[in-house]
Amino acid sequence: IVLLIVAYPLYYVLIASFSDPYAVYAGKTFLVPSGFTFDGYKAVFADPDIVSGFLNSVKYTVIGTCFSVIMLYITAYPLADKGLPGRKLISLFFVFTMYFGGGMIPTYFVVRSTGLMNSLWSLVIPGLVSPFNLIVMKNFFQGIPQELRESARIDGCHEMTLLFRIILPLIMPTIAVLLLYYGVGHWNSWFPASIYLQDNNKLPIQNVLRAVLIANSNLLNSAAAENDQVNEFAEAIKYSAIVLTTVPVLCIYPFLQRYFVKGVMIGAVKG
After folding, report:
1. Which of 246, 198, 260 has its CA nearest to residue 57?
2. Cα–Cα dist 200/197, whole Å
3. DSSP symbols for 103-135
4. φ, ψ for residue 264 (rounded to 5)?
5. Residue 61 and residue 185 in contact, taking contact as beta carbons nearer than 8 Å
6. Could you tell me which of 135, 130, 162 has the C-alpha nearest to residue 79?
7. How open is the CA angle 265-266-271, to the nearest 5 degrees?
8. Rounded to two decimals, what is the model's pTM?
9. How many Cα atoms within 13 Å fall on the side-chain side of residue 184?
10. Burial code of 85-110, b = ≥16 C-beta within 10 A, e = fewer?
11. Residue 34, Cα to own-chain centre: how many angstroms?
12. Burial, 255: exposed, middle or buried (Cβ in 10 Å; 0-12, 13-18, 19+)?
């Protein structure tokens, strides 16, 4: 029952995207598409803002996720070394940001004064390293036996070789989990783009979809007869755009699922 409650809204959005917009608006769509059509998807791909927004989201997600995971990896590794001078003070510096922050306006001034406005980096750098994920990654590094590092160094293994050829394969489940977390976060992010990006052709799909949904809501609330065709067009775009923004995450998740489950279960069972 819970599965049906959770899954039906997603299923409804899917069948509504292939249904006649008038039938959806009239409430005639329930279990199967009403008047099967691709008009909604044709309208979506005919809109240059939605297409460019989709491509922008892919670019922001890939670049932002890769940079975040790389920075998290090379930051957590030295913090897990007990021989690092000032390790506790540096860790406290990161933990401090979890509880205290400057807020939206000071952050905006920092982004503007550093010349990041209206660029990709305004969406990537401010949230590059999550303190919570840093603590998780550091704990996994600390769980790796110190004897493994020492034996590798005795065999003449360079520190970079140790980091990327020995340590990295051992924590791949954690990396996969963080890739999924960061990827979904960047893909669904819309608020930073609405603040820092000024050109419409740089907006991600979430911002474009938000504008479509707002315009759609305003149009559907209009009682003018001449807006009937516009209403149907807006209804078709709404569901089709939602499906297009959800599909990439649904396609990526199956490939990371086994790593995700393994990463979550690591440390849960001892023996």
Report:
1. 246
2. 8
3. -HHHHHHHHHHTT-TTSTHHHHSTTSS-HHHHH
4. -70, -35
5. no
6. 135
7. 105
8. 0.79
9. 13
10. eeeeeebeebeeeeeeeeeeeebbee
11. 33
12. exposed
Q: What value does the CA radius of gyration of the chain take, rounded to a whole number of Å? A: 24
Whose structure tokens read 């540096």? 90
Q: What CA dihedral angle connects 188, 192, 198 and 201, to 10 degrees? A: -20
Structure tokens at 13: 């959005």
- Look up residue 244 and give its two tokens: 């297009």
Residue pair 260/176 in contact (Cβ under 8 Å)? The answer is yes
pLDDT, tens digit only, all 271 positions of the chain: 888 888 888 888 888 888 877 777 677 777 887 778 887 787 777 777 888 888 899 999 999 999 999 999 889 988 888 888 888 899 898 889 888 888 889 999 999 999 999 999 999 999 898 888 898 888 888 888 888 888 888 888 888 888 888 888 888 888 888 888 898 889 988 899 999 998 888 999 888 877 776 766 555 555 444 455 555 666 667 788 788 888 887 777 777 666 665 554 454 444 4
Cα–Cα distance between 242 and 54 in angstroms, integer?
Answer: 11
56's tokens:
């922008």
∠ CA 137-70-164, nearest 5°, is 80
